[in-house]
Amino acid sequence: MTMTYSGTTALITGASSGLGAEFASQLAARGSHLVLVARRADRLEEVAQGLRSKHGINVTVLPMDLGRPGVGRELLSELSSRDITVDTLINNAGFGTHSAFVDEDPEGIASEISLNVAALVDITRAFLPGMLSSAKGALVNVASTAAFQPIPGMAVYGATKAFVLSFTEAVAHETKDSGLNVLALCPGATRTEFFDVLGSQSAAVGRMQTSAQVVGTAIKALDRKGTPGSVVSGWVNRVAAGFAQRLPRAVTVAIAARAVQDW
Questions:
Q1: Contact between 148 and 126 (Cβ < 8 Å)
Q2: Which residue in 7, 26, 66, 186 is deepest, having the highest Cβ count within 10 Å?
Q3: Phi-psi category of residue 31: left, alpha or beta, with phi > 0 → left and psi -120 to 50 → alpha
Q4: Measured in Å, how far apart are the chain's first and last C-alpha atoms?
Q5: Catalytic residue among 5, 54, 136, 161
Q6: Are 88 and 134 in contact (CB under 8 A)?
Q7: Is 161 a catalytic residue?
Q8: CA–CA distance, 197 with 217 (Å, rounded to integer)
Q9: DSSP secondary structure, the chain, as one string
Q10: Percent of the chain surpassing pLDDT 70
């Protein structure tokens, strides 16, 4: 089964590059109109112009900092004022930090949790009722293979992604009879700006995938008759995630620490 998104609208956060821009491209190719949200207005407009020209769709650009309280209601109010109804939500915005927790900047920690967790939950809560009524699209929350074990050296990031995975799988079960497909996407290392922001390539564990491969994994999962609550992108990553769930917890923590620490 191939889902058609023709005539629907998808809201994508973190849409100026990487996975967000790729989601925009692949959904636009299936006929979805788009609302693109990120901080960089110039990059958003560049993405939007290309998609309008190529696919003849409507693309709304909203430059916003999502890491503040009440952002879900703010987004919903703004789109309602423009008579835009969201059928699909891609919660992709997020970032990671890489150092011993004791050395982390407290403000950076707060921002990481606000964006990766609080904003994702708030935006999901704001738009979920409308998406359930529509039942034409999907909810995709971008987690990570970091969700499957604690990550010494990336303690906060790993914990935020574990939250996203747990939260999304629970919502998927709660809404399983609604017609809305709910999916936690768990990529491993991906060729995006993530590691530039992180400031280290040592955390790029395993075989690097492209954004197209990762988003393709999500789209294929959404096309399935019974969309799973979560999917890991890449067979190597799936094997590693499986081992992480079966090995003793202390072993997986030690392996993760050796894999990502560079100090």
A1: no
A2: 186
A3: left
A4: 48
A5: 161
A6: no
A7: yes
A8: 24
A9: -----TT-EEEEESTTSHHHHHHHHHHHHTT-EEEEEES-HHHHHHHHHHHHHHH---EEEEE----STTHHHHHHHHHHHTT---SEEEE-------S-GGGS-HHHHHHHHIIIIIIHHHHHHHHHHHHHHH-SSEEEEE--GGGGS--TTSHHHHHHHHHHHHHHHHHHHHTTTSS-EEEEEE--SBSSTHHHHHT-STT--SSPBPHHHHHHHHHHHHHSSS--SEEESSHHHHHHHHHHHHS-HHHHHHHHHHHH---
A10: 93
pLDDT at 107 over 80: yes
Predicted local confidence at residue 259, as pLDDT? 84
Measured in residues, the chain has a length of 263
Active site residue 5: no
pLDDT tens-digit map of 54-100: 999 999 999 999 999 999 999 999 999 999 999 999 999 999 999 99
pLDDT at position 206 is 60
- Active-site pick, 157, 176, 220, 225: 157
Single-letter amino acid, residue 98: H
Give the other-Cβ count within 10 Å of 206's Cβ. 14
pTM: 0.91
